[in-house]
Amino acid sequence: MPFSLSDFLGAVIIGEPQHRHNLCIFPLFVSTSSTLSYLLLEEALEQAVLEISEVSEAGSVNAVFVTNNGDAPVLLLDGEELVGAKQNRILNATVLIPPKTKVQVPVSCVERGRWHYRSSRFSPGVFGYTTLRADKAAQVAQNLATGGFFMADQGALWQEVDRKQFAMGVACQTDAVHDIYESYHDKLQEYVAGLQPQPGQAGVAVFINGRVSCLDLFGQPATLQKIWDKLLRSYALEALEFKGRGTSKRKPEAEPVLRAIREAEIREYPSVGQGTDIRLRGRGIVGAALVDEGSLLHLSVFATPAQTRTQAGIARPRSRRRRI
Question: Where does the ARG and Rhodanese-Phosphatase-superfamily-associated domain lie (predicted)?
Answer without folding.
Answer: 13-302
